[in-house]
Every structure is written in structure tokens, then in C-alpha cells.
Amino acid sequence: MLERVDYDDRQHAVYSAGRALPAETARLWSEVFARWAGASKPSTALDLGSGTGRFTPILAETFGGRVYGVEPSERMRQRAEQDARHPGVQYLAGRAEVIPLPDRTCDLVLMFLVFHHCTDRRRAVAEIRRVLRPGGRVFIRSTFSDRMPDLLWHRFIPGARRVEQQMFPTLTEVTELFEAAGLTVLGLDRIRETAAPDLATYAQRLRLRAISTFEHLTADEIEQGFAALDRAVAAGDTPGPITMDSDLLVLGA
Ligand SMILES: C[S@@+](CC[C@H](N)C(=O)[O-])C[C@H]1O[C@@H](n2cnc3c(N)ncnc32)[C@H](O)[C@@H]1O
């Protein structure tokens, strides 16, 4: 079991810059969320593990209702309160295992790169079930260790793939947990987004180490990886844009 990453330690300081969402990517995810919400336009959504609020205002803009952003890291939440304010959004301290909302408050729960951080996944799923209204949806954007995408940075830092294999649950583990709580799998979507226009920009962003995987790598692994990446940038033979595939699991209550 990997040690828990506390976003109050280092990630909060680099996350906004290292994970900035270009307008085109924000639009892409908004369209994906709208497509999977279907006709059931959510009037209340929960961004669970909302971090710096990358997706919280996007949910409010996409659906027009109220959105709660629940986040355990005080410093990530402060960033969201500063930089991702929106009249429809309210940020709250809390975590998936203890959601600070009454029963049946939400039509939609989004967990974007959060589920693998939950220390008690069964309890988190029970809490999600509790706050969902009948007919509600759950969007889990995650990597699943049994269907890992081929990410470019893993080729330069092979240890990262090894760490992520341990860090992420399998698709079966996640679906079984939700099915046991009475939810149904509605779909699994593979989304391709542009990570950077070219390798130099990609390398620059990666150097911020705004991915929790880095907290489990040794200084040597990181240094060697960045040296290899710098050589590839100098060689100029990796064509841009750099794309990245990710999975979205959709469940219904
Ligand atoms: C990779 S970040 C994702 C943040 C945001 N969803 C995004 O995509 O920008 C993971 C976030 O999950 C939060 N987190 C960690 N454990 C959590 C838990 N048990 N419940 C809810 N959020 C948690 C972290 O503090 C961090 O802000």
C-alpha cells in the first residue's frame, strides 16, 4: 500500500500551474459531462475532491444549478476559494468518507482523479450513495490499473507506471464496490485530451511535478527521467500536440 499523499504538503503549491486546464479541454469535459448526464439535467452537483476547483465552476456552467466542492486539503480549498469562485458554487471542508451534506441532496457526483486517494473506499461509496437522489449519476474519472493508458511521461520515467499500477484500483474493484451499494454501470468512456501543444511545453509543465505519483518516486528516478525528457526535447523528433487518454466510468443510482 502506498503512503497517502497530503496535498497540503507540496501539491497545493504547484497544482494550479502544473494542471491548468486550457479552454479547449474545459469545453471537452463540459461536453462529456453533459452527454453522460443525458436528459436528467442535474440541479445540484457535488465535485467530490474538488482540489483547486478546476472542474467545480465548469459543472455550474454546464448544468446551471448549485454545485458543492468538497475538499479535505485546506490549502487546495483556499486556492479554489480564491481562483475558482462562481455564484453557483460553494466550497466545503470534507472528504468522500464523510460528506458534509444531508441525504439525497445531489443529482450528480463527480470524482475527478480522486477515488484512488480514498483510504476507505467502501465508506466513500456508501456516502456517495447516501447523498445521491434517486436517478442520480456518478462520474468517476480515474486510471484503472487493469487498463492503464500509454502515457508519454511514463516512457521517460518508467517507475511512474510501476507506482500507478499500485496506486489505482482495477475497473472491476470499483464497479463491484458501486454495484454492491446498489448503483448500475451506465458506461465507460475513453476521452482523448490534448496535454500540451508540443513536447517542450509538456516537459515544462511536468517539471512542476503536479502529479501525486511523483511523491512516490526517488530523486534519482525523477532526475534521470527529466534528463531523458530534455534530450528528447533537444532532439526535436517528437511531434506535437501531445495527447493523453483517460477513462470516465459512469454509474447511475
Ligand atoms: C489529483 S487531485 C484532483 C483535484 C480535482 N478533482 C481536479 O481534478 O483538479 C486529488 C484531490 O483529492 C483530494 N482528496 C484526497 N483524499 C480525499 C478523500 N478521501 N476524499 C475527497 N478528496 C480527497 C486531494 O486533497 C486532492 O485535492
Q: What characteristics describe this protein?
A:
binds S-adenosylmethionine; 253 residues; Rossmann fold; single chain; alpha/beta; globular
What structural class do helix, strand and pairing data support? alpha/beta
- For the residues shown, what is the average pLDDT? 96
The main pleated sheet reads as: 7 strands, mixed
Total beta strands: 7
Order of helices and strands: HHEHEHEEHEHHHEHHE
Q: Which homologous superfamily in CATH is the superfamily of one domain?
A: Vaccinia Virus protein VP39
Could you tell me which ligands this complex binds, including any ions or cofactors? Answer: S-adenosylmethionine
Q: CA-to-CA gap between the ends?
A: 30 Å
Q: Percent of residues in beta strands?
A: 15-25%
Q: Counting H and I runs of at least 4 residues, what is the number of helices?
A: 10
Instruction: Determine and state the CATH class of one domain.
Output: Alpha Beta
Rg over CA atoms? 18 Å
Tell the overall outline: globular
Q: List the uncertain runs.
A: none
Q: How helical, in percent, are the residues?
A: 40-55%
| CATH fold description of one domain | Rossmann fold
Judging by the overall fold, what is the CATH architecture of one domain?
3-Layer(aba) Sandwich
Q: In order across it, which strands form the biggest sheet? A: 3-2-1-4-5-7-6
Summarize the topology.
Elements: H1 11-18, H2 23-37, E1 44-48, H3 56-63, E2 66-71, H4 74-83, E3 89-93, E4 106-112, H5 121-131, E5 132-142, H6 152-156, H7 158-167, H8 171-180, E6 184-196, H9 199-206, H10 219-235, E7 242-252
Parallel strand pairs: 1-2, 1-4, 2-3, 4-5
Antiparallel strand pairs: 5-7, 6-7
Helix pairs in contact: 2-3
The structure holds S-adenosylmethionine.
The site of S-adenosylmethionine has 20 residues, from loops.
